[in-house]
Amino acid sequence: MNFDIPLLAIFASTVTAATPLIYAALGETVVEKAGVLNLGIEGMMLVGAVAGFAATLATASPVIGFIAAACAGILMSLVFAVLTLSLQANQVATGLALTLFGIGLSAFVGHDFAGTPIAGLKKLPIPFLSDIPVLGKLLFSYDAMVYGSILLFIAVQWFLVKSYAGLKIRAIGESPTVAHEVGHPVIWIRYCAVMFGGATAGIAGAYLSLVQTPMWVEGMTAGKGWIALALVVFGTWKPLRVVLGAYLFGGVTVMQLFAQGFGLGIPSEFLSMLPYVATIVVLVIICRDPKTILLNQPLSLGKSFHPGS
Q1: What are the residues whose beta carbons fall under 8 Å from the beta carbon of 87, sequence distance 6 or more?
Q2: Taking the model in full, what pTM does it have?
Q3: Interatomic CA distance for residues 273 and 253, integer angstroms
């Protein structure tokens, strides 16, 4: 039996499945590093997916589609930011409401688009490198957004660890009161972090409707926003671990699809629930050791702050 093609297909499919998780989870990592907990990723992804699809359908340009998706995600995140940062609403309740709003809004807007196929984003093999036997197909034969996810990881890692702005975000996440007293605009910086997370969530959603399944399907995120949230905890708020976790969960998602093709006598319903079971198991294992969470979790995560308080 020749395993070359299945192994290449599994690896490539894993990378594709992990890409939207990387965008959404890295954006949420920055948001949570600023001390804000946004549970509305699922809703922002869905709105980004339908906005990106509609823009691409209208212009025949996936680039414009991704830009539209990022803008839609930013607009959704601004609703969350105004309610939680300016009006001091509860972050958990507002995030859940944002997800429900995004589910309903995307279903309403996308009603007329259901089942309409588009060309979507094409693969962009890197010249010469993609011609390398085996490794070329494994590493250098993906679409532009896959390469973009790697660049995003590098940028977020550098930003949070090396840059002065990243230091301010981490300081605000630990103690917004102290950061405010030394002159940092806490609310404004948190607004910027939340909008960044909204943009990446919108792009993650558009990746689903423009690359993975180049058509609009209601509820197509299928819980991936919640997995992205779990990945931030799984990665203990460290970008490298978040990315590795995304590839791990992407691999689990892909294996349940290939397992059916290999003729394994396992019910498809059981295989479909594997990614979510893996999410629960990983979180339970991590949370058994409180030190793992407490040493890395921003101290002000989820807590409201008002400059006058």
Answers
A1: none
A2: 0.91
A3: 9
